[in-house]
Amino acid sequence: MLFPIYLVGYMGAGKTTAGRLLADKLGWHFVDLDEAFAQIHGYTTAEYIRQFGLEDFRRKEKYVLEDLADQVPFEKVIYATGGGYPCYEDNMECLRELGTSIYIRWKPEHLAKRLSLTDLSERPVLQGRTEEELLTFIAPQLEAREPFYAKANHILDVDICDEDSDERIAEELYKFIKG
Questions:
Q1: Percent helix / strand / coil, the chain, rounded to 5
Q2: Residue 70 has pLDDT above 80, yes or no
Q3: Which of 11, 41, 51, 137 is most buried, with most CB under 10 Å away?
């Protein structure tokens, strides 16, 4: 297995929360690309998208990871990518070359439920949607992104949505990395 580890998947898949838990368990470093973007550009991803648009955000987001790959002096790092990151240009291929990518795959209805329980104001494209509207939005977008996500080196299917999901995801990822 190549290091670092890149977690990919749709927004709300647990990349950040489970990624932090996993890094703590392994004693590794953790980097959330959305947080790194905010530190570098001075805007949260939501603020940046509102002000400059999604296309400009995707262009800038691409280079955040490349800059970090050169600057982070640690080999054993867990990176949480943004949900759309793997779907832009050749980003998924780059992740595969730089380390090991792991797709945290959920069913659309579970993602809709999970996201409906979060603060959607931090997710501009989902803001103000009900759980049913989330599902209507997520299902086709997830289907369109699946070919990109599926290029990951490893796929972790998550089929239970409850309050312990992130801990279970972290545990499964831990077993995979240590296995």
A1: 60, 15, 30
A2: no
A3: 11
